[in-house]
Amino acid sequence: MGLGISWKKAAIISAVVHLIALFIAVIFFVVVPAIQDMETYEIDLTQSVLDDGGSGHAGGGGGNRADLFPKPLSADEVAARTKAVVANVEPSTATDIPDAVDV
């Protein structure tokens, strides 16, 4: 009927294969997360980078906290700028585009 492997040998081979699979699963689920925990570090987000007046990077450009954002425009300034933009925009005219393929 074939190779002539007895049921005892088959049970031993099956047990060995299952032990190897269990060993690999233990490595995957226990050892790898333990190694990753050692490599993990925390960043404390409760401290503000802007406390020292710097910009947050080595390139400088720090300064005063009041200079971080410009002053808001008044309603008159917004209306004047909007009017200037609308006056400078020329309306585009529709042009005919020839077909790419002549049929």
Automatic annotation (TrEMBL):
Transmembrane segments in this chain: where? 12-35
Protein's UniProt keywords contain Transmembrane:
yes
UniProt keyword list: Membrane, Transmembrane, Transmembrane helix
Mind telling me what this protein is named? TonB family protein
Q: Which species?
A: Veillonella dispar DORA_11
